[in-house]
Amino acid sequence: MQNEKLDTAEDIIICREVHKWFDDFHVLRGISLTVKRQEVIVICGPSGSGKSTFIRTINRLEEHQRGDIIVDGIELTHDIRNIEAIRREVGMVFQQFNLFPHLPVLQNVTLAPIWARKWPKDKAEEVAMQLLERVGIPEQAHKYPAQLSGGQQQRVAIARALAMQPKIMLFDEPTSALDPEMIKEVLDVMRELARSGMTMIVVTHEMGFAKEVAHRILFFDEGVIVEGNTPEEFFKNPKEERTRLFLSQILTH
Amino acid sequence: MSVTSTTVMRPPTPPGPVRWLKKNLFSTWYNTLLTVLAAVFVFFTLKGVVTWVFFTANWAPVTNSIKLFAVGQFPPDQLWRVGTILFLVSFLFGLSWCVWGGTVRTFALTLALVFGVLALLPISMELTLRLGFLANPVLTFIGYQVGRTPIGKSLWVVLGWLLSFVLTVFLLTGIEGVNWLPRVDTGLWGGLLLTFLLALVGIVASFPIGVLLALGRQSSLPVLKAFCVLFIEVVRGVPLVTILFMASIILPLFLPEGVRIDRVLRAMMGMTLFAAAYMAENVRGGLQAIPRGQVEAAKAVGLNNLQIMGLIVLPQALRLVIPAIVGQFIALFMDTTLAIIVGLLELLAVGRAVLEINVEWKLLNMEVYLFIAAIFWVFNYAMSYASRRLEVALGVGER
């Protein structure tokens, strides 16, 4: 009993034997993962391996059909109140940014705090401006998303997620839709975030970023975690054949 | 090697209308030929129209029945009610002009101008009516001045318009047994007044109902979804004429003894439900155009379903379908003429009635129908213009 309580205090995400099917297709085949507070985890793997689907089950954008997911002591069930409570604690950044195009940047950031956290407008705007400063684009606050570059949009998306003051941040291929010269500005923001002690799960193929920032790297293939290790071990001594093949493909292209 | 940037001037474009003419009308020999032919055609058509309108046509049926065209058989001693409503509208336009500016300014000024011209028309008119017309532009400017005070907030303006709608209905119907505001049977409402009321009620009521139907059609609750699909498909599969007939003849048969719905109200209900079904399909088109990522992003930041719909999906979806919605409003405005078949004396019906008033007018249908067409065109063009300006203001098509 005592042990269990300690676990939830230290382990912020607990996944046990998570399975998911899209109709007949078995996407996730028993994923078990425990993430500690302030831990940064990078997930890589070939496309279709279920890595995006997996992080999307953590905030219930996808429903899992078997197994348990417990986020910050709250178990993900069909109860919509639990789902909404977890979503308030978990921020997410998408490959396609998904900013709200009809709202200026500042309102993109303040929307959720005002409506989901019931903050007064002044407070929400103050926090939003601080966040825009943190991601380096306070001067764009009154522009519309379409007037920004891809890198700037993604940084706004990060600020939008941070505005809810989440305990966990999920990144779903945050740099895959960006032009090469904009990747760095987004990764810089993510580096700073990791250093500040945010718990992060990042799906990415940026192996330089992974080496530098991640505490653990997980390799996904065909719906299972093939291998998980510290960056040094992962790159130096990959244990599985599939990992070696994948690494040779993405590191030498 | 250093690169020095030199500013290269864009070659100057020769200005002037001559160049424009040359480029657009006389660029080749066949273009020149077409231009000349078109010019000849336009000249003779215009000449014919102008001669007819100003010299041949006999506008007597129109000028002698202006009151009928405007309000139908509304009791003449109660016309101050209609005047009061116009005052209110002029005032609210002035207020909205100050608060919202932009296109509203164009409309407020046009309205003021039209009333000003009406007041000065060189036809026989009672002095009170003339002064009444003259009061409208004055009220518009008073409204504008009021807008500069603390009252000039969007919220108050919207409330004012909503209130004016209620007041309009109240003023027009009146109260049974009250001396200064006797009840006016809706059967006496007519002309442009009735056309306006039918269209306005149809537009204002069908919009929210249509949005709700569209949302219901996308719902995951099977019963709600089935009801919405059934309603939309049944109504869309039936002509408006049929619906109006049903509303006015068949509906009363099903109502319990003693319950009677007013004739005008029944027509309004029929038109509203008809328009709502089409509105629902327009809105659905907009809803489907919103990428799934928008909903996911909204979920991920912790908004609930109601907030996602109201703050993220609907604002974007409605913006996309403004052209379709306004097109439908225009169609609805013209469909009000179908109320003629359930015995309502709207604008077109008044036109037909006017032709019967005087034996000498019997063959003047050209004049009467042209007049009615002109009225319809003016209001439809105004709607179309407002829609275009709204699209620009909201940036449709720029993303």
Textual characterization of the structure:
The complex is a heterodimer of chains A (253) and B (399). Chain A has 253 residues and is an alpha/beta fold. Chain A contains ten helices and ten strands. Chain B has 399 residues and is mainly α. Chain B folds into two domains: 108 residues, no CATH class; 189 residues, MetI-like fold, CATH 1.10.3720.10. Chain B is built from 17 helices and no strands. In chain B, helix 9 packs antiparallel against helix 10. Chain B is globular, with a radius of gyration of 26 Å. The two termini of chain B are 41 Å apart.
Order of helices and strands of chain A: HEEEHEEHEHHHEHEHEEHH
Rg of chain B (CA only): 26 Å
Oligomerization state = heterodimer
Global shape of chain A: globular
pLDDT averaged residue by residue of chain B: 89
Give the distance, in angstroms, between the N- and C-terminal Cα atoms of chain B: 41 Å
Biggest sheet strand order of chain A reads 6-7-8-3-9-10
Radius of gyration of chain A: 18 Å
How many beta-strand runs of chain A?
10
Percent helix range of chain B: over 70%
What's the number of structural domains of chain B?
2
CATH topology description of the largest domain in chain B: MetI-like fold
Distance between the termini of chain A: 50 Å
Overall geometry of chain B = globular
- Largest sheet of chain A, if any? 6 strands, mixed
Largest interface: A-B, 27 and 21 residues
Structural class of chain A: alpha/beta
The averaged pLDDT of chain A comes out at: 92
Write the layout of secondary structure elements.
The complex is a heterodimer of chains A (253) and B (399).
Chain A: H1 2-10, E1 11-22, E2 25-36, E3 40-44, H2 51-58, E4 66-71, E5 74-75, H3 80-89, E6 90-93, H4 105-116, H5 121-134, H6 150-162, E7 168-172, H7 180-195, E8 199-203, H8 207-213, E9 216-221, E10 224-229, H9 231-236, H10 241-252
Parallel strand pairs in A: 3-8, 3-9, 6-7, 7-8
Antiparallel strand pairs in A: 1-2, 1-4, 4-5, 9-10
Chain B: H1 17-24, H2 29-56, H3 60-63, H4 66-71, H5 79-100, H6 103-120, H7 127-147, H8 154-173, H9 191-217, H10 222-236, H11 240-254, H12 263-288, H13 292-300, H14 305-320, H15 322-335, H16 347-357, H17 365-394
